[in-house]
Amino acid sequence: MRYPIIIFFFLAIGLNNSVFAQIQTNLDDGIVNENHRGNIQFFLVKAEHLFRQGNQVEALIELDNAVDLAPQNPEVYLHRALLKYRLGMPTAARADAAMAARLNPIAPALFGIEGPQAQMNLLAFYPEEIYQNVSWEDQVFQYETTLDKWYEALHTAHTNDVYPELESAIIHLEGVLTALENKSWYKAIEELTYLELFKANTSIIYDLKGVIYLELGELANSTTAFRKAINLDPNNTMAWYNFSKVSQHLENYETSLDFLNKAIGLNPTFSNAYFERALVKKKLGDIEGAIADYTKIINRGESNFLAAHFNRAICYKKVGKLTDALNDLKEVLFYESDNSMAWKVKGNIHLLAGRYNEAIADFTKAIELDSELGTAYFNRGVAHLLNQNPITACVDFERSANEGYDRALEKQKYFCSN
Q: Residues 6 or more apart from 341 whose CB is under 8 A from it?
């Protein structure tokens, strides 16, 4: 769900200073209020999720709850107005938009409901769109535990066979994992075929088949394989973890959450499962639950702790805890000062908080690290506009357009035509 429009480009040519001053006053008075937004964010996220699932009545109930919680916040009425428009309730939608306007005369334009400014959406990207996932290498590495167990069994076996069956199985499992690391799916299937000759009814084989089918987009075959793996070994943590991803592809996040809870119950130290569960909780609107899972990973110092910091920063931003979000990004940048995306997200947060100079500095750093970041040029242009520097903003919009970011052309036409 994209963040509602919180700050707009009201520095267009011809916009008088008194109107801009009114807008700035409203911003300073708390439209961007960390605690206030955080209170309603759960309901807004949950409503969007329910609407995508086709549960329109339930979505409207969540927005009713948001209105009950924050009846003086124009944003909740505007969210509900948008949903009512979607549901074919124009009269009720207009009533909510009118209420928002009474609470704040510029709110409908500010949040993009009506008026000439409604076309001016805010940012080139929203951090909610760029959560990091568990790295592919880290997923494949989990199977090293099985490989280690097979090695241990081989070393303790007493056999006079020159080429024991278990040694053959180990060779082909290593071949499967190497193929997976290289994303050579058909080579992995070939190695699995050999592995089946020696370990024909092993749960891990069907689990690995499921992984390959999932990567090939064959969800039905993947589902069959994971179910077979779990039937053979109900305690196969990796199979439950991987099976959860099929449900995510089908947008059945509740089932995915159940499978991940099962995986964590079998292995409470399985960092990847906590990471994946946090992503699922985020999609279900349980942002605080996602934050809790990322915190577990960070406190344990797991290998993916920086990605957890990055994602937790986005979660904090999503519930309006901007200071906590910035602290997480600072931790990422302490270890990865060349992480252009972290600088860009940090710039977005400063921009939303109204700290335009800091935002400009962050976007500049992102551009220095990756000059092809058209969206960073665009957002820096936004910061220059809000910092009352339209000439420099127009230069950034031109650079953004030259990098292929089409929306920059719109802003050039709107702000830079004179």
A: 130, 366
- Kindly state the tokens that stand for 322: 């901007």
Domains of the chain: 17-122 (1.25.40.10), 337-418 (1.25.40.10)
Closest CA to 74 of 118, 26, 8: 26
Q: What is the length of the chain?
A: 418
Task: Tell me whether residue 161 is exposed, middle or buried, using C-beta atoms within 10 angstroms of its C-beta: 0 to 12, 13 to 18, 19 or more.
Answer: exposed
| Sequence letter at residue 310 | F
Min mean pLDDT across 151-155, 293-297, 398-402 is at: 151-155
Q: What is the pLDDT of residues 183-225, one digit of tens each?
A: 999 999 998 888 888 877 799 999 999 999 999 999 999 999 9
Place of tokens 């702000």: 415
Question: What amino acid is encoded at 320 in this protein?
Answer: G
- What 8-state DSSP symbol labels residue 4? P
Q: Which one-letter amino acid corresponds to residue 372?
A: E
Rounded to whole angstroms, the Cα distance separating 46 from 289 reads 13
pLDDT score at 6:
30
When pLDDT is averaged across residues 12-21 and rounded to a whole number, the result is 34
Query: Which residue type, as a one-letter code, is found at position 208?
Result: L
Residue type, 410: E
Cα 313 from Cα 350, distance rounded (Å): 13
Structure tokens at 373: 């970041």
pTM for the structure as a whole: 0.68
Burial status of residue 236 (CB atoms within 10 A of its CB: 0-12, 13-18, 19 or more): buried
If you average pLDDT over residues 295-312, what whole number do you get? 92
C-alpha triplet 89, 8, 52: angle, nearest 5°: 40
**Rounded CA gap, 202 and 206, in Å?**
7
SS (H, E, C) 212-233: HHHHCCCHHHHHHHHHHHHHHC
- Residue-wise pLDDT for 363-397, tens only, equals 999 989 887 778 888 888 888 877 778 889 889 98
Start-to-end CA span in the chain (Å): 35
